[in-house]
Design goal:
The protein contains 2 helices and 20 strands. The protein has 3 domains: 118 residues, Immunoglobulin-like (Sandwich); 75 residues, Sandwich (Immunoglobulin-like), CATH 2.60.40; 97 residues, Immunoglobulin-like (Sandwich). The termini are far apart.
């Protein structure tokens, strides 16, 4: 016992001495360590995930490619680390030097994360030839990423194919679920809208509960172009002796966030409040006047400005909830919210 107390006392004295010099050592998670910034996984692609990671490594594009992405992983970057990307048209299709700077991007970052920049063609279509993206860290060039733009047959990239996209059932009563299923090939990116998902697998399915009749659109994309298919799901009228408020849509225009709210029941609803959550935090609320049976209106959130920027390369989880204070007795208290990534 005496030896143990002596050991503890010596440890405390050692810590006090170390603190006086430089502080006791704290072991950090490597992901949190802010050491010299480095870049890895620097590639060009036709699409990125919501976190900014390239979904594929593409070096040959066709002239009609709508967007070319540069994606990179930033590692252990100190606060305000500057990342720049300069897009240069190096040689034309006849291999003559051009060396024209097309775009110059910059972003300040910290920690460890993926980032991406993206651009469409400068004038309708990409000029054929060789390109390069020069990437800089705090003003120092660290890597050059080359890519080519060619004709379709030269690039040898087939258009994405949608083998099927279907809903089961195609008609249902309010409150029932629908199974959406699809199969694609040659697609770098698959999206299903509205509010089903982005960067989905090429073959997959998803269960949804639509509150209105609506059309679902599947978009399959690669460097050759885009293929789409649309299906319609019909939701029959909802009958209840209580009001039923649901959010049917959300959009942002400029700095204003808009949403659509609908009373899908056959009796009117009194006034209520709608809440806006971004990344899980309550950011805004809006007052909603009484609504007639079956009425739908587009509303905004007063005193709230959307400041997340149109140049953002990642999406934010958004949730909009009708009757946010739960003051209205409804048939279904669990269908007031619309969730999506924006």
């Amino acid at each position: 016992m005496h030896k143990s107390l002596t050991a503890i006392a010596l440890l405390l004295i050692s810590c006090l001495i170390l603190t006086a010099v430089s502080g006791c050592v704290k072991v950090k998670n490597p992901e949190e360590t802010k050491g010299p910034a480095t870049l890895s996984e620097v590639v060009t692609s036709t699409a990125v995930s919501s976190q900014g990671k390239a979904l594929s490594d593409v070096t040959k594009f066709i002239a009609t490619t709508p967007e070319i992405y540069l994606s990179a992983r930033v590692n252990t970057a100190p606060e305000d680390t500057l990342v720049e990307a300069r897009w240069i048209y190096v040689t034309n299709e006849e291999n003559k030097e051009v060396n024209e700077e097309l775009y110059n991007d910059s972003m300040t970052v910290s920690g460890t994360r993926y980032i991406s920049f993206n651009h469409g063609p400068p004038s309708g279509t990409w000029a054929k030839g060789s390109y390069m993206v020069a990437v800089f860290l705090n003003g120092k060039e660290v890597i050059d990423v080359p890519f080519m733009v060619k004709e379709v047959h030269e690039a040898d990239v087939p258009y994405p194919t949608i083998h099927f996209f279907k809903a089961l059932p195609e008609a249902l009563n309010f409150g029932q679920t629908v199974l959406l299923s699809w199969s694609t090939s040659n697609a770098d990116k698959v999206d299903v809208a509205p509010a089903v998902g982005t960067s989905l697998p090429g073959t997959g399915n998803k269960i949804v509960t639509p509150v209105n009749s609506m059309e679902y659109k599947l978009t399959a994309t690669n460097s050759a172009g885009t293929t789409t298919k649309t299906i319609k799901v019909v939701v029959t009228s909802f009958y209840s002796d209580k009001p039923e408020l649901v959010i049917t849509d959300f959009r942002v225009q400029g700095t204003t966030a808009y949403y659509k709210i609908k009373n899908i029941a056959e009796i009117p609803s009194r006034s209520s409040k709608t809440f806006l959550y971004i990344q899980g935090y309550n950011r805004a609320s809006g007052f909603v006047d009484a609504m007639a049976a079956g009425q739908e209106r587009e509303e905004t959130f007063p005193n709230f400005e959307w400041t997340y920027g149109s140049q953002r390369t990642y999406k934010l989880p958004v949730r909009v909830c009708a009757d946010g204070l739960n003051e209205i007795k409804e048939y279904d208290e669990d269908n007031n919210c619309l969730e999506m990534d924006w």
